[in-house]
Amino acid sequence: LLHGGSIGYLGGSIEQVSINNPGGGSGSGGVPDSLCYFPNYDLRPAEIPRLIEIYNGVRQIPPGKSFAPLRFAIRRFNSSYGKLRHEDRLLDCTIALESLLVSDDRDLSLQFSLYGALLLEPKRKRTRTYSFLKKLYGYRSKIVHEGRDVPDLLKASADSGVSFLEETFQITREVIIAFLECSGNGESPAKVRQRIEGRLLSP
Questions:
Q1: Fewer Cβ atoms within 10 A, N terminus or C terminus of the chain?
Q2: Tens of pLDDT along 110-127?
C-alpha cells in the first residue's frame, strides 16, 4: 500500500515465471508476460514512518460488518500481486475498488468512476480520474463477460500496457489508503460513500 514495486511475490525466481513466452520477455500489446514487469521495490529510510503508519492503520481497522468491505479490499489488492495473468490482476484491483466505491446495483460503472474521482480529488484531477476508472470498469466487464485478455484490450484502445496496469495498481492503492484513513476516524466505507453523495447533492 505504500507504493508500487515487486514486493509480495511468493517463492522462486520471479524472473523465470512467464505466461506465454517460456523465456520471459514482452507479450502482445506491450504488456510483458512475466511477473517481473513490476519495478524493484525500493523502501527508503524516509518512508519508514509512513509505512508504520499504514501498517498500524490496517491493524486497527475496527471490527464488525460495516468495515468488512475495507478488509476485503485489502485482501483482494494483496492477492493481485501473486497472480500470473494480467486479467486476474486487473480483476482483483477492480473488485477491491468496487467493494469500496459501489453501494448497490444501480449504475455500477457511474458509481465506480464518479465516486472514485471525487474521493481522490484534489490529489488527482477529477475528469482524468473519472475517465480512467470508467475505462478500467469497461475492461473489467469485457474480461468477465466476453473473455477478453488485457493485451488485446489495450491494443484495441491504443493504451500503453505497462503504464495502464501500473496506474490501475496506483489508483487502487490510493483509494484503499483514503478509506483506511477514514476508518481511523471511525468512518465506515458506507459513511464515506454517503459523504461523497452529499457532495453530489449539494449546490
A1: C
A2: 999 999 999 999 899 999
